[in-house]
Amino acid sequence: MTRRGRIDRFSSVKLLFFLWSKDLDLPRQSETPRYTFLVRVSDGGLVKYPVASSLRHKGKVIELDEAREMVVLLGVNGDVIGSLSWDFVIDQILAYRKISAQREDRSEPRISLTFRVRYNSPEGPRCESRAGGIGGGGLFIESQTPLPVGTRLAMEFSLPEKSEEWMPAKGTVAWVCPKADQYTFSPGMGVRFTEIAADVRDRIHELVKSIQNMGHAA
Asked: Which of the chain's ends, N or C, has fewer CB atoms near its CB within 10 Å?
């Protein structure tokens, strides 16, 4: 391989890691993200990046394994802490970047509202959690371990107006929020309704409109 080919290949790998580390919200020294690495390349296709600018992780090493397409985290003593596939890293970057766009695509208004929800995927156990928002198009389920985008869910939820009544619906995970951010106060997943009775949707619309009108009046 020529020197130019080696540089081009590693530039692509460095870009992948930069995007990944940027979305992990590592500490910044200025408004412009800067990540300092001392690069060492071995003949086996491994690229090692000793972390230098992160106060929390200084001394650790990120190793990119081209042959296995893995990102490996090494401790200060060279011990393997963990590893991720490139597929997983790329999926996480894309999931973070799609969250804002997907929220803007909502065709129906939503409100922040706390209520109980039960749900399960076709292969998973039944879970009970708390919802943090709802609209005619879907709801937000709070969860420390949100399910992957595209997961189908069977749900039932209880609105505050009649907490003893459980209303069924089916949906699909449309986006995930792995950690609390400026939009949500809890990690979780946004679920888009795929099957919901017309009278249940009408009740949601009435509730949303009622709470929005109360806010305007205040």
From this structure: C
- Domain 106-217 belongs in CATH node 2.40.10.220: yes
**What b/e readout covers 68-99, taking b as 16+ CB neighbours within 10 angstroms?**
eebbbbbeeeeeeeeeeebeebeebbebbeeb
Give the number of other Cβ atoms within 10 Å of residue 187's Cβ. Answer: 16
- Per domain, the residue ranges of the chain are 3-91, 106-217
pLDDT by 10-residue block (mean), the chain, 218 residues: 42 46 43 43 71 83 89 90 82 58 58 93 91 93 91 95 92 86 74 95 92 69
| Contact in structure between 16 and 84 (CB atoms under 8 Å) | no
Q: Which two tokens stand for residue 137?
A: 């198009």
| Per-residue burial over 18-53, b = 16 or more CB atoms within 10 Å of its CB, e = otherwise | ebbbebeebeeeeeeeebebeeeeeeeebbbbbbee
Whole-model pTM over 0.85? no
